[in-house]
Design brief:
About 25% of the residues lie in helices and about 20% in strands. With about 160 residues, it is α+β, with helices and mostly antiparallel strands.
Length: about 160
């Protein structure tokens, strides 16, 4: 990765950090700039998982967050950039500043800007087709916003303890 995110509270050995106590400040937002190589996916996924853990999400929710970030990154590389290496991707993670904070994950690309379609969908036994299903089923919100000058901003939201 070109910018390294430091986990905000989980230990580097993979152990989950305890949820933040009531009244404590949320973890600092994460911002990463990476390129469209498959090798970058794991680092972004780990940063998202570390942030979600520090924000008080349980292990099951953290696993879902990791999976959706993995899928979203793979989709950007494959569909927005046609597997071309070296293209920019920005990733941000933060919590909304309301009484019931929501995790907000954003991926920005400068690719085709094409809205994801329904495509063929998932066909059992045939590779592919599950990325958008995962995004919709494992988060509370999925928004695609074409960007001025090209590309797309994907915003995923997830609330603690609720689907």
């Amino acid at each position: 990765m070109t910018d390294r995110a430091q986990p905000t509270s989980p230990a580097d050995d993979g152990r989950a950090a305890p949820p933040p106590a009531a009244g404590l400040a949320p973890p600092a937002p994460v911002h990463l700039r990476v390129t469209s190589e498959p090798a970058e996916i794991a680092g972004v996924r780990k940063a998202a998982e570390a942030y979600a853990t520090a924000a008080g999400f349980d292990d099951a929710a953290v696993a879902e967050i990791g999976l959706v970030v993995n899928e979203a990154m793979a989709n950007v590389i494959r569909h927005a950039y046609g597997n071309a290496p070296g293209r920019p991707i920005e990733f941000d993670a933060d919590l909304t500043p309301d009484a019931d904070p929501t995790l907000r994950l954003r991926l920005r690309d400068w690719g085709t800007g094409r809205m994801p379609g329904r495509g063929r969908g998932y066909i059992p036994g045939v590779p592919g087709g599950l990325g958008l299903v995962c995004l919709r089923e494992m988060t509370n919100g999925v928004e695609y916003e074409p960007q001025p000058g090209g590309g797309m901003l994907l915003t995923l939201t997830k609330r603690r303890g609720r689907r």
